[in-house]
Automatic annotation (TrEMBL):
Enzyme Commission number: 4.2.2.2
Signal peptide: none
UniProt subcellular location: Secreted
Swiss-Prot/TrEMBL cofactor(s): Ca(2+)
Role, per record: Pectinolytic enzyme consist of four classes of enzymes: pectin lyase, polygalacturonase, pectin methylesterase and rhamnogalacturonase. Among pectinolytic enzymes, pectin lyase is the most important in depolymerization of pectin, since it cleaves internal glycosidic bonds of highly methylated pectins. Favors pectate, the anion, over pectin, the methyl ester.
Catalytic activity entry: Eliminative cleavage of (1->4)-alpha-D-galacturonan to give oligosaccharides with 4-deoxy-alpha-D-galact-4-enuronosyl groups at their non-reducing ends
Name of protein: Probable pectate lyase F
Similarity annotation: Belongs to the polysaccharide lyase 3 family.
Class of enzymatic activity (EC top level): lyase
Top-level division of the source organism's lineage: Eukaryota
GO annotation (BP), single: pectin catabolic process
Gene Ontology MF annotations: pectate lyase activity
Amino acid sequence: MFATAMETLEMSEDVTFDSVVLNGESRKLAGAAVDTTTFPDNYTPGQVMAAEDEERAVGVWPTSKGMVPLTRPRTVGPSTPFDGGMKTYKRSNVAFKSGAKMTRANAVFVVQAGGTLSNVIIAGGGGVFCETHNCALVNVWFKDSVQSALHVNSGTGITTITGGGARNVARRVIFGQASGTVVVSGGFYMVNSGRLFESCGTCGPVKRGVIVDGVVSVNPTAELIRMNSNYNDRGTISKATITTSMANYPVCTRFIGGATPRKVGNGAAPPSARTPRLE
């Protein structure tokens, strides 16, 4: 059975990856055994699934209620919240290039400070551009995003992602360019996707943070969060379940930010099928 090859990491207590603290103290991981996750027979660990197989295996991806092509970004302002009615939205006139940063011009939605975007599926390689932090996403689902699913551009404050999910997002789901904090909660569901949060390493020395309080990641292709030690970034994981065939899955990686970011280590490398906690 494939289930024996899969490992589930569950975090139910706060695990804070504060670069300054981790560099100054010697901490160790302790753990207690947890059950491995069981999937239907059509799921092969380590292999990207076709969409129809994936939906049967996971059973959580929402059904689209129609397609809405856009030729320019739809703006969501503080006085104009947008409920998309679980329709699928995509740009019909943009060819997204891997490795390029999302811009305001090529986004599917632009959310301004104080704006709330809810109940949408975003497809076609695009994503959401949070203009100046303090954006709220509720039940927003991303499919096949090429650059990032959510780009937090500038300003400072708190941006929240509640529920929703990501499927086949190539590099990272959330790209934090601005200072401030991103809070992910409500059982955000990731399948076959890269890291949940990446703190920009080339955007200058400002402190960026992420709080993960309810995430499920199946078959990830990268670590859960990436932070910059020299910018005093802070990542806190309160609740996450990760199902992966990777040995020694790196939940958090630490980099030195600059013109050419350099990896300096892992904030934590939990043992297989354990509930890690800091002692």
